[in-house]
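Q: My labmate handed me this sequence with no annotations at all. I'd like to see what the chain might look like in three dimensions before we decide whether it's worth expressing. Could you predict it?
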Amino acid sequence: MPLKYKDKVDLYDDHSNCITKDIPIEALSPLFNPYAREVLDFFRKTAFIDLAKLEGYIKSGRGGWETAVGQDEIQMPWYGRDLPLVKRSGEIAERIREKIARYGDGEELADSTPDGRVLIIRIPKRMMEVSASRDPALTWTMVALCQAISETFNLNPDTDADGCNMLKAAIFGRYPQSPELPPGGAVSGLLKPSNMIDGLGFGFTGIMVNHIVALVNKRVMDGVALATILNQAAQWEIGNAIGWFERYHLLGSAYQGFNANNLVMDLIRENREGTIGDVAISTVKRAVEDGVIKVKKTLPSGFKVYATNDFPLWNAYGCAGALAAVIVNVGA
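A: Here is what I predict for the chain of 332 residues:
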């Protein structure tokens, strides 16, 4: 790949150990980095089924709610069905696997947690490639789940029409009469449904921060790196990172997201007993030392006006300083 920019950085881990040197900033772009693409693919194609929650919904006859706090606003116990979903989770997972495996390439597409309460579903790559959106992670999973439960417990319009309706309501809610899926429902993805995102290209920015925290096991810098991959993917999708602003985004993600040249950790260590104001001062001092900014003029009062010849790099220092300030502020 021909390089457009001369910028290279050293990347450091959260113990300030240099893990690699002289990395071209373009290697961090999701368009060129295969590992970033694997992360994004995982977020797009993965869904989760909370069988324990679904079992409770079906048993109590709950379905069709419209708010996350109103999951008991509609209760129809006379339509409830006592289906031991968790107990038979292995069979349900196998039936889902059978329905989607023929479109895969031999990879594991359906498995469960050891207690059988949650199923993890991954949609085949070829389906995601032909899809106009990320929604197959939900739509395929929900339809396959309905079919798997129906087959497992012999639910069909002939044997139990009301049971079929209850199953649909517990999984899909009022969809398609109401276009939004039930908030807090038993089936969820790492990305929100496309009809719930505000603005073009914002799919990767609507992820709950708790998901990121859990995926990185509460490790701060790992969480920052993962969030950076997702945010930069969104910036490229929106169109913010092409042309004039490509280097601006690449440097920002390198310094803030991947601790380039150990800047973030240096600022944290230097101000571990300080405040966010101390971090701001240290950021400016470091930028002066590194030649990123310099004094443009000194006013009669002695006040110094700084300027830069490299706004993208100065922005990257500012991003790193902002992250360090947040970490110090919450008690690094």
